[in-house]
Amino acid sequence: MSILLFIEQVLNGLQFGVMLFLMAAGLTLIFGVMGLINLAHGSLYMVGAFAAAAVAGATGSFLLGLAASLVAAAAAGAIVEVAMIRRLYDKDHLDQVLATFALILIFSEGTRWVFGSFPLYLDVPSWLAGPVTLPGGIQYPAYRLAIIGIGLAVAAGLFALIRWTRIGIRIRAGEADREMIGALGVNISALYTIVFALGAALAGFAGALVGAIQSVQVGMGEPVLILAFVVIVIGGIGSIKGALVGSILVGLTDTLGRFLLPVAFGAFLDPSSATTIGSALASMSIYILMAVILLIRPTGLYGSD
Amino acid sequence: MRREPLINAAILAVLLAVPLWAWWTDEPFTITLATRVVILALAGVGLNLALGLGGMVSFGHAMFFGIGGYAMGILASQAQDYEPLMEWPILIEGTKSMPVIWLTAIVFSALGALAVGALSLRTTGVYFIMITLAFGQMFYYFAISWPAYGGEDGLSIYVRNEFPGLNTLDPIQFFALCFAILLAVLFFMSRLAKSAFGLALVAARQNQERVQTVGIGVYRLRLAAFTISGAITGLAGALFADLNRFVSPTMFSWQTSGEIMVFVILGGVGRLYGPVAGAALFIVLENVLGGLSEYWHIYLGALLLGVVLFARGGLIGLLAGREVAHD
Amino acid sequence: MTEPILEIRNLCKSFGAVVASEEVSLDLRPGEIHALIGPNGAGKSTLIKQIAGNIAPDSGSILFEGRDVTALDTVARARLGLGRTFQISSLAMGLTVLQNAVLGALGRRGRVFRFFRPVMRDRALLDAARDALQQVGLEDFAAWRTADLSHGQRRQLEVAVALTLKPRVFLMDEPMAGLGAEGSLRLTGFLNELRHEAPILLVEHDMDAVFALADRISVLVYGKVIATGTGDEIRANPEVRRAYLGEEDAA
Predict the structure, then answer these.
(1) C-alpha to C-alpha distance for A131 and A141, rounded to whole angstroms
(2) ipTM confidence
């Protein structure tokens, strides 16, 4: 095991974490402001990926594909919010879970109907296709490095949006006291639609970025959604900062677990059992991390009571 | 005048009549469908204890369904390969005996529910939903990455397991066995709902503070309910695996959790026979709508939305109206 | 002098800069009604919550029959014999009135982990529950859904559930609130008798009831007990007059 390989894995973990952040940030924002648990967030991730793959395939431009993912996911989010989600804000969590589960069924089958069951492929643009050489001689794919950069930039932008802009002030006010900002004359239903569309756009954008590494297919969103839930449980619900820290923790734990655990077991087991046990344990590592955090802080690292 | 008991009796009568009729006319596929309904209903009855009575929105019940399924798969596959499960420190052999398999499924899914519940019940509300969903996914990935029992491909059992005095390969006999178990569990649940434990559990769902103020600890109450709930769903998992003679990680998937929840909701949350009605409706829809369109999940989604937004009592609620049991 | 059943020593609690309880000390003796009064925002609710175990004090201690219960939670304190009623009725609204009362009797008896015997056919529990309902005058409403009760009836049920616990101490948070003149009068008579079963720590805004019932009154202002004494002593206390009348003038 070389140090270079290790650094590469750390970068992979970061890239994974940054992607998770784009999902978790939207989820946690939507919960924080509207009190809604949205299982269909993974569908918006899928919508973004399909939009990007379709538009990039038709035009040949990856950037147009990315733009399409933002527009399509935000539009899908806004439409769903206006048509259905807003009826759920004052319902209990069970209703929210069921209704958004129903949305998953509709989104997934609808996508299958339009695009068929075969996966689509989204190519990494040629100008990001090769590896770059990092200080120390590490060769790392330019595209993955770009994802890390873009993700961190989006995170910074999101913090700035919430801290400095008018809409951010309203979002924070909405988290603190919903009735009051309505009484102050803020158009609350417009605010909710904007927040939902913003979360949707982030999810769709993540879907498009990941779509170029993995295949674009129906059902791609839900495993990521569940990981984003793990992130939120770890970070604390409603906290963007918690989502960022949780995402990076989960990304690194998962990637490094898969890399290191088989190696660690190799120290005292024969290679094939070491790989078996190591990778089986690695598949559970983030959930074990979640369990430990739950034992220590049931409300998550940055959660309030 | 209460209609719910009549409706319940009618549901059971239909559930019994359909496979008998199919047996008469020699249509084994219909008997198998009815057996599916019975087993899925059992899984739903398990969830309904946590969800309907206890108010614990578990989106991870597939993990108990899967534990039950793998209890069957592992024991039976060891038995069919004539290899002991474990030789040291004590010899444990596989088995094809259903009672032993059921007991194993119940014990291990109860232990799983106890462990997951002990952690998840430290939180409430949205956290609880997300955590149960996540733990379910953990079991799913573990089943995929553990190669000893088939990994992603699952595990086939060539011959259905045995029950003393019955030919379980005969569809109607296996149906009867599953139906008897469902009846027994429904009877147990009807007693539980009216017991001291049931009263405290329902009261805690409605008002946790009230229950604590009379000196009853809510955490232990819920943990016990969650454990029993997991055990029942685990038993259903063992039967489901035996019906298909196949187990795979799909039994652990979040979609399975979602479907078990859908049975409960379609039928009516907290109604004793809700999951039975819901599972039956689900299988009927799957076969009717599934025949009409490959994309029948769209209609299922629309129906589910309709129930959530407009008909919270589910099927039994629609038929029986909004009445409360007084004793 | 008899030993106090409930004793609160130097309780302090603050939320950020807001001091809710400052060195609060008071006690409750057998057979008495000790009323706790004070203007809105004086910290009465916070004090009740600390006594019941909902929130932990920053410092100080709570003794119940000589035993330090500061570290115990609500459930444990209820088991020891703390019978609490809430300012805003806290009942299982979907259950019947009788079921709510049986729940109380069940809490008193323990043995909740019984899965098979129908609880609503348990003679002992039913008798205890019916008895309590009768004491508050709700026996005719036993089969009603709790959510269908009037506001005043819910307050009565609150008290009935506390009665089923056969507590050593009653902790009542504004039981008269919203009862109307006649209801208040009836409850006043009832509490007057109840003190012989167990002493009552009574938080109440209805001053007629307080001065009619209380053996002793403590006045809480800005988290501090400024006076404790009989009704006459409190009426004559200059600090109390300043706290109440001064504020009335300002308002």
Answers:
(1) 4
(2) 0.91
Answer yes or no: are the C-beta atoms of A303 and A239 closer than 8 Å: yes
| C112/C107 Cα distance (integer angstroms) | 8
The alpha-helical segments, DSSP class H, found in chain C are 44-52, 74-80, 97-109, 123-136, 151-164, 180-194, 207-213, 231-236, 238-241, 247-250
For chain B, domains (ranges, CATH) are 4-320 (1.10.3470)
Phi-psi category of residue C91: left, alpha or beta, with phi > 0 → left and psi -120 to 50 → alpha: beta
C-beta of residue C43 within 8 angstroms of C-beta of residue C21: yes
Domain that holds residue C101: 94-165
Check whether residue C115 and residue C141 sit in a common domain.
Answer: yes
State the average pLDDT over residues B301-317: 85
CATH code of A15's domain: 1.10.3470
Q: What is the DSSP letter of A89?
A: T
**Residue type at C37?**
I
Residue type, A170: R
**Beta strand pairing call for C33-37 and C200-203:** parallel
> Is C148 at the interface with chain B, CB within 8 A?
no
Q: Which amino acid is at B78?
A: Q
Contact B224, C116 (CB under 8 A): no
Q: Write phi, then psi, for C210 (nearest 5 degrees).
A: -60, -50
The conformation of residue B89, written as its DSSP 8-state character, comes to: S
CB of B187 less than 8 A from some CB of A: no
CB distance B207–C96 less than 8 Å? no
Across chain C, mean pLDDT equals: 91
Q: Taking the model in full, what pTM does it have?
A: 0.93
> Quick one: DSSP state of residue A187?
-
- Do the beta carbons of residue B35 and residue B42 sit within 8 Å? no
Q: How far apart are the CA of C238 and the nearest CA of chain B, in angstroms?
A: 38
Same domain for C147 and C28? no
Number of neighbours of residue B122 by Cβ within 10 angstroms: 16
Residues B20, A178: Cα–Cα separation, whole Å: 58
Same domain, yes or no, for C186 and C66? Answer: yes
Q: How many helices (H) and strands (E) would you count in chain C?
A: 10, 10
Distance CA B142, CA B133 (A): 14
Angle at B212 between CA B211 and CA B213, to 5 degrees: 90
Is C93–B207 a contact, with Cβ atoms under 8 angstroms apart? yes
Enclosing H/E stretch for B227 = helix B218-244
Residues C101 and C177 in one domain: no
Range in A103-107, A138-142, B25-29, C4-8 the model is least confident about: A138-142
Determine whether the interchain pair A101/B137 forms a contact, defined as Cβ–Cβ distance below 8 Å: no
How many domains is chain C built from?
A: 2
**Same domain for C154 and C192?**
no
Write down the residue that tokens 């060769």 correspond to: A139
The residue-averaged pLDDT of A278-291 equals 91
Is residue C87 a part of any domain in this protein?
Answer: no
B195 touches chain C (CB under 8 A): yes
Interchain proximity A106–B122, CB inside 8 Å:
no
The alpha carbon of residue B212 is apart from the nearest alpha carbon of chain C, in Å, by 5
Distance CA A42, CA A31 (A): 15
Output the average pLDDT for chain B. Answer: 92
CA distance A233 to A229: 6
User: Residue A187: which domain range?
Assistant: 3-296
Residue closest to B123 by CA, chosen among A290, C53, A39, C57 = A290
